[in-house]
Amino acid sequence: MVLMGMDVPLAAIQRQIASAIDIIIHIGRLWDKSRKLLEIVEVMDYNGEEIDTRILYQFEETGRENGRIAGKWKKVQDLANTEKLFSAGYQTL
């Protein structure tokens, strides 16, 4: 709709994005030119002004090994919206 040139309010577009996307995978390029998975984010809801998100996992840099960035995954929060997984047949997370 947006690409068709229709006059759609920004709030309507943001609401559609928030309802269509469940998880965001953030891959970034670091100073050592490596690409790493940096964050896994859950899209929660649209609150009237912006799209609310929750960081589930985050890459923490721990140092350097052989000129490359080393790190580990840190779990920040649990997945909140599990209904789709359970309805698809998942028993546990």
Strand order of the largest sheet: 1-2-3-4
**Number of H/I helices:** 2
Please compute the radius of gyration using only Cα atoms.
17 Å
Subunit arrangement of the protein: single chain
Mean pLDDT: 89
Please indicate the count of domains.
1
- Looking at the structure, what is the overall shape? extended
Question: What letter string, H or E per element, gives the SSE order?
Answer: HEEEEH
Describe the protein's architecture and organization.
Helices cover 17% and strands 45% of the residues. The chain is of the alpha+beta class. It has one domain. It has a four-stranded antiparallel beta sheet with strand order 1-2-3-4. The longest helix is centred in the N-terminal third of the chain and has 11 residues, at 10-20. The mean pLDDT is 89.
Give a quick set of tags describing it:
alpha+beta; 93 residues; four-stranded antiparallel beta sheet; single chain
Overview in brief:
With 93 residues, the protein is of the alpha+beta class. Helix content is 17%, strand content 45%.
Write the topology of this structure:
Blueprint (H helix, E strand, L loop, with lengths): L9 H11 L2 E7 L5 E12 L4 E15 L2 E8 L7 H5 L6
Antiparallel strand pairs: 1-2, 2-3, 3-4
